[in-house]
């Protein structure tokens, strides 16, 4: 039997493999079958992971890209496959994550028949993806395809990284591949981000150093750009000598070890109260790889008019987007921090003792409150107790993937980043529910041997992508999925109660219907464990971590627990009991809006 004649699907697979892409996440369709055929003949270099839903293919590619720095690649077919990608594309676009979406299309000569689905599943995909991508291309010919692949990877990884849609018509995909003339060499500079680094002029660096040396209460805010520039070690070395408070955004968590005395955690309404309290007291704020979004900027109350500011970013459009920086430093984060550290001269670690004392004071006060929450024996369980048990079991190779909503707050505020690096993955580009389970698939595909991926999601977020548990089981991935189940859409219920006094359409169960997520997981081939009591959490996590394959640990939690400090309620202790017994059910007051809680 002779080998089949090579086709353009082989060409695409070959160029991806030569570009260092190890996995493609997606779902095949008739228009993209040639791609999967090409991948199948290159299993030693590139593999396909079959997802259950196309939107989750983008999330898995996103998770892969965040850990590796390489473009995450997903594939979908025309029409109903492609129109599920925008949620993942927008997440990657807003979070500056390199991604390549390979999208099937109807044959080129069917162009007049796309409208209204006259040709089955047809619509104007190019215009559609122009709205949610860094760039989008429709391949016009076989000859143009190799260069468009190379161009797409270059754009995806170039500052500022983002997703690129490459739309390939069916007749091009299935065409013969002339191996002698059509293969274009890949550009090894665009294999991962960042492939270009630059630095601001010395005169601007001198202005920044002058501000730093004058400051009495400086703060360094580290955003996701620190991870994007692979600059954690350089930023930590700079922070050790800076004599400043250091906080991070959610995406920047792990830029520096949170075990350092000068680090106060995540600056976000869902994050650290110490960070929220201390940053407004600063006289200089250095925004390092942070776009100063609504959340990191605390609804743009930061920086205050009195604070001097330095911005470090390779995107010129970020300097001045929401405020006018005192000194804008246009350049790659790692290169800029190295230049600042060299120009700083002698260490200023002991230059601001009063500021360091203030940081220690506020952190100690906040740590006392956290310690009580994390040791709570309350039933239903408080999420900080879950985080306390999880923290004891996380190893250096493990990676935590957060879903949106309150899960991000429980992770950011109660799980310390003990080492540098992207050990925490947050879906903050869009903040959409349903990221963690498919995102973990992308992370697990490249995690170090012996490492585990741990996801945290509420029952609402977990419901979005429960079908991808079957994917985790099929590939026997080392993933521990933790579901903190409060039976409701917690954030929406909080919002409705506070502002409308009438929570509606947010209950996920009723008296005679309580979904079982651990049981559903067991039915899909995972290990499922259900927990109601605080003392059983540790045992359940031990069992899940020891399991050879994916698992789900479902924990029933207090339906009014929130990590948002301004919305936390004061708890009424049980009467006549100095300390509650294990299993005590707390009676809790109504929501109390108070910024000083």
Walk me through this protein's architecture.
With 597 residues, this protein is α/β, with parallel strands linked by helices. It starts with 7 loop residues before the first helix and ends in a 9-residue tail after the last strand. α21 links the parallel β17 and β18 (551-556). Mean pLDDT is 92; it is low at 570-597.
In percent, how helical is the residue content? 25-40%
- Domains counted in the coordinates: how many? 3
What is the CATH topology descriptor of the largest domain? Rossmann fold
The unreliable regions are 570-597
CATH architecture of the largest domain: 3-Layer(aba) Sandwich
- Average pLDDT reading: 92
Name of the CATH first level of the largest domain: Alpha Beta
- Percent of sequence in beta strands: 15-25%
Number of strands: 20
First and last CA, distance: 75 Å
Structural category is alpha/beta
Cα gyration radius (Å): 25 Å
